[in-house]
Specification:
Pfam families: FCD, GntR
Order of helices and strands: HHHEEHHHHHHHH
Distance between the termini: 36 Å
InterPro entries: GntR_C, TF_FadR/GntR_C, Tscrpt_reg_HTH_GntR, WH-like_DNA-bd_sf, WH_DNA-bd_sf
Oligomer: single chain
Domain HTH gntR-type: 5-73
Largest sheet: 2 strands, antiparallel
GO molecular function: DNA binding; DNA-binding transcription factor activity
Structural class: mainly alpha
Radius of gyration: 20 Å
Shape: elongated
Strand order of the largest sheet: 1-2
Protein name: GntR family transcriptional regulator
Helix content: 55-70%
CATH superfamily of the largest domain: GntR ligand-binding domain-like
Number of helices: 11
Strand content: under 5%
Number of domains: 2
Amino acid sequence: MPSANRLYQGIGNELKLLLKSGIYKIGDRLPPERDIAETFSVSRTVVREALIMLELENLIEVKKGSGVYVINYPEEVLSEKNRKIEEDDFGPFELLQARQLIESNIAAFAASQIVKSDIIELRAILEQERQTLEQNKLYDYTADEMFHITIARATKNSILERILEDLWYKRSSSKMWDQLQSRITDHSYRKKWLYDHEKILQALQLKDAMAARHAMWQHLENVKHTLMTVSDSEDPNFDGYLFDSIPVTIVNQ
């Protein structure tokens, strides 16, 4: 079983061994994600990340609503470019899991530390986010990033702020994240995420730590469900029900 640290890479390498073995020919369709997940005893989120890795290496092609097809065989030695991807990149859902655990607690702490100037700044950022959507700048996530980092800054803890900046840097520099985003054709989800941000801000204004934690947790849960739905390669109506790689739930305290 591959290491839990970069689990998707281990599954991706196992799939590459299958391609090298000649079991699948160029043009063949790989088994459904659900079957691959059962074979390796992992979640579909991990399989999804492994397939993104193979797609970046130009080994497979994902056809929306049809499946995953073999287009090339693996080289005996990985290119320097692809080796760099394997070493440095994180799976999108792995990154979202980390953000969910960290940011929900940051939001709770921010609720106890936040001051009027922070609220004013967050309101201005949400207005910027609204204008971005009204102007149809669907690939501009500047205000989205600013909103999350400003909440971390509101904790008055520079280490927490730095952690959030690093997480967003990992997202913006991730080739796997870009590949996942490239499959999105319906951007209506951005309005739902703006609504989530409004709920988070409302909890912060009330200085309600539990509500802020829950609102942030649910927001990132909604992000995961959205990305699972739009990135599915086999069924356009898949509703993202399998999240056993994200087993943590909010417990009221």
